[in-house]
Design a protein that fits this description.
Blueprint: E1 12-17, E2 39-45, E3 48-52, H1 66-72, H2 78-84, E4 86-87, E5 89-107, E6 110-124, E7 129-134, H3 145-161, E8 165-166, H4 167-177, H5 184-201, H6 206-209, E9 216-218, E10 221-222, H7 229-241, E11 246-250, H8 255-268, E12 273-277, H9 284-296, E13 303-305, H10 313-326, E14 331-334, H11 341-349, E15 355-358, H12 360-363, H13 365-378, E16 381-385, H14 391-404, E17 409-411, E18 424-425, E19 428-430, E20 433-435, E21 444-445
Parallel strand pairs: 10-11, 11-12, 12-13, 13-14, 14-15, 15-16, 16-17
Antiparallel strand pairs: 1-2, 2-3, 4-8, 5-6, 6-7, 9-20, 18-21, 19-20
């Protein structure tokens, strides 16, 4: 094993003089225990370059402006970093994170007013801290709060007691401790915290770590289920005034009322895009009839999400084929159908849907990245959304989406629906636009008491 403080560079390292950059590199990256003045590093791995245009100086008072840092820095590759960064955890902990909603949220036949999530904090020996969140939500996550907290603490204990190892190996070990779809939400929270801590260590924002396509992201918003149609339209108008142009609506309970509401929204806001989430509400025949009724009513949603039960593979394919043959311009997307890479592969192989909805709580971060890569190679469209979660989990997902730049539809709106925001700093929301102004990590954190 390499000494602590070294980055493992599988091929070559090239040191070069840096004329005007003076910035502290964290303790776990590149000769942390030695004083190197004004030196940058390029580590080549797998044919691509992982660049760190930071320096180690003998004085701690040296600083550099954000603008000059940004102009000097080149994108990191996450895969490269996972193989080169040695993780040494000082402390890891999970605590309850209770969130209340402004108004009840309908989930299938249930109405949810609050959730009990779990926040994860990972502190490295270099002093850098990362934050993650474990969503606990009916119909999406398979574990309740008690199990989620217990499993999160099990993973945190492992991290606190482990010897230093490269990030990829740490994440693999966490995958073994928290395996399968059942523990994906807990795994996601721990993965978020680890990756955030590493990004903080190298002074890189997450959006740049994941690809650097953009440092902003535009989200749609979910409209609460309210009738009559005028109430739906008023809700849409309120969000339109704030700049929102994509609305997600839950359907499948009252077809007649829902079509009237959709007509009212589309009449008032003809340029807005509609995502209709059926949440497994229909049989195959009912879903086909809904598509026809929408068309006959002059409603053209961009997406019909999860029209049939997750186990109805044949019905899913028939609904998708019907939408394609009729050329309605509607993409059929899957959500609950895909609980792991196995289901995603089947959807792609059999051409059962046009789009896949990514939820980090459903796949974990590493699982989601694998699915995203497969979908992009196969030409399948990608969506991203979340569960009821704070700006910790939402911020991480938003950074990932902005960095990758491959999502046709983004609905990361849950913080808008919370009665209070427990997260300090993090991204800045201007209407539907998230701006990532932080210079490293995902930028958000919670205020925890460590006095006891």
């Amino acid at each position: 094993m390499a000494p602590i403080g070294f980055a493992l560079c599988p091929k070559t390292s090239i040191f070069f003089p840096s004329s005007n950059v003076e910035e502290r590199v964290s303790g776990n990256y590149l000769y942390a225990n030695k004083h190197i003045s004004k030196t940058g590093v390029i580590a080549s791995y797998g044919g691509s370059k992982l660049m760190a245009q930071s320096t180690v100086t003998t004085t701690s008072s040296t600083s550099v402006s954000t603008s000059s840092r940004s102009s000097e820095r080149t994108n990191f590759g996450f895969k490269n970093l996972a193989e080169t960064f040695w993780v040494d955890v000082q402390r890891a902990e999970g605590r309850p994170l209770n969130l209340e909603l402004i108004a009840p949220l309908s989930v299938g036949s249930k109405s949810v007013e609050e959730v009990e999530n779990v926040a994860i904090r990972v502190e490295l020996t270099n002093g850098c801290v990362g934050w993650g969140e474990v969503p606990v939500f009916p119909s999406v996550t398979a574990v309740n709060h008690t199990v989620a907290l217990a499993k999160a603490m099990e993973a945190c204990e492992f991290l606190s007691c482990s010897s230093p190892m490269v990030l990829s190996l740490v994440l693999s070990e966490i995958g073994g401790i928290l395996p399968g779809p059942e523990l994906a939400s807990v795994r996601a929270g721990v993965e978020m915290a680890l990756i955030d801590a590493v990004a903080n260590s190298i002074d890189v924002p997450l959006w740049r770590l994941f690809g650097g396509v953009a440092n902003t992201l535009t989200t749609g918003v979910t409209l609460p289920t309210v009738f009559p149609a005028e109430a739906y339209s008023q809700g849409a108008s309120k969000y339109c005034q704030s700049g929102f142009r994509t609305f997600k609506l839950k359907i499948g309970k009252n077809t007649s009322a829902e079509i009237k509401a959709l007509q009212a929204i589309q009449a008032a806001h003809p340029l807005c895009s509609l995502i209709l989430d059926a949440n497994e509400a229909y049989t195959c025949q009912e879903a086909i009839e809904i598509l026809q009724k929408l068309y006959d009513s002059g409603i053209t949603p961009a997406v019909l999400e999860q029209p049939v039960h997750r186990s109805d593979w044949k019905g899913l394919g028939e609904v998708s084929n019907f939408a394609r043959e009729k050329k309605y311009g509607i993409s059929v997307a899957v959500d609950e159908t895909c609980q792991s890479l196995i289901e995603v592969r089947r959807v792609i192989k059999e051409n059962l849907a046009d789009a896949i909805n990514i939820k980090l709580a459903k796949f974990g971060v590493m699982g989601a990245l694998e699915i995203i890569e497969l979908a992009r190679e196969s030409g399948v469209k990608l969506m991203i959304s979340g569960t009821v979660e704070s700006r910790l989990a939402t911020g991480f997902a938003a950074h990932l989406a902005a960095g990758l730049g491959c999502f046709k539809s983004v609905v990361l709106d849950m913080p808008f629906l919370l009665s209070e925001d427990p997260v300090i700093c993090g991204y800045e929301a201007s209407g539907p636009v998230y701006k990532f102004l932080n210079v490293r990590g995902q930028g958000g954190f919670l205020k925890w008491d460590f006095s006891s």
